[in-house]
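User: I'm writing a short report section on ligand binding and want a predicted complex to refer to. Could you take this sequence and nicotinamide-adenine-dinucleotide and write out the structure as tokens? A short remark afterwards would be nice.
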Amino acid sequence: MPTDPTRRDFMKTTGASLMMAAAPATQLAPPEKQRPGLNIPKPPNKPVGWAIVGLGQLALAEVMPAFRETKLSKPVALVSGHPDKANQVAAFYGIDPKQIYSYENFDSIKDNPEIQAVYIILPNSMHAEYTIRAHKAGKHVLCEKPMAANVQECEQMIAAAKEAQRKLMVAYRLRYEPYNKAAIEMCRSKLCGDVVQIEASNMQNTRPPNIRLSKSLAGGPLGDIGVYCINACRYLSGEEPVEVTAQIYQPATEARFAEVPRDVLWTMSFPSGVHAHCGVTFGSSSSRHYRVHCVDGYIDMERPFGYRGQELRTYQQRKETTHEFETVNHFAAQMDHFSECILKDTDPLTPGEEGLRDHKVMAAIEESARSGRRAKVSS
Ligand code: NAD
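Assistant: Sure. The structure tokens for the complex follow:
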């Protein structure tokens, strides 16, 4: 998902001023030497230490800045193949440069008790390997979506977490923000009556160079942006799809779609008779939306999958209502949820099994598109 212009500007500013911004922090007078009465608050004590694996677009533009808004989570280590970049990021966020790891010495995080949680923000094809290695190192793992490259990898990741007796969570950040949570509650409470159909779309224009246009690294629009629609239809209906139909379009005339489709369109049938129709593309301008059609009205979300900017409306009895909630930083909220699970030894809301379910639906969508027939979702 591309970052919005504000964040891009932030990235540019951040990149340009990483070293400058880090310097003044080291020049602050220690509390005992501060002017009496100044009363500078102590830095908050955030109990759970995180290692960030992969310093790409999402990590730098969203995840690292989100630590400013966490209450329980702090960045203590970085894993990167680019030492210069990692050193700059470490200086900017006050991370000890000794806590920078490469992909080669990644396994030695097992000797670092400061790291409790590991956040995998790598290309999708690397999620399984680094999640399993982190579990073997005795760490809890938050893995970016889509969870892996296929169903089999998801199963291996879940097994690795079980064997290590560590927690595994998939970064479905929308389950931790108020707007999508409210839409789920509206569906469950039947605010507009029983759900009949759901439409969900997630569109963007993906231009090279981008890992998303590589079949081996990311696998195309279904896993990258389609997973949001699948996950949303599951959390809004509260059911698991049993059957799908699908179509994939890969224009031979556009070089950027040499390896991955441009469009994926599909339907999902749920046991109660609810149906969903979804569409994603890497070829149009950004547009994200879902609408839940109910017996007595509808629930409508504009930008449901964005980092911010959700707009939730309902329509019932010929009246449209706009619902407003406090906005939160999605990444801070999901990291703090996972930190809390670690501290209290509870299960995350979106564990590995949640990612596995989406991958089973994606496997059925791919099968249906290949065969031109309805495909069953494996249970
Ligand atoms: P990116 O290409 O900007 O970053 C990938 C990072 O992996 C880079 O730092 C790159 O150097 C590193 N890397 C290590 N080995 C690599 C290799 N062999 N080939 C390519 N890169 C390699 O990608 P991104 O947009 O930051 O996405 C990273 C992950 O985050 C993906 O799984 C993506 O689906 C996910 N993501 C999630 C959200 C969300 O809202 N939850 C948004 C964007 C991306």
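A remark for your report: Confidence is low (pLDDT under 50) at residues 1-28. The chain has nine helices and 15 strands.
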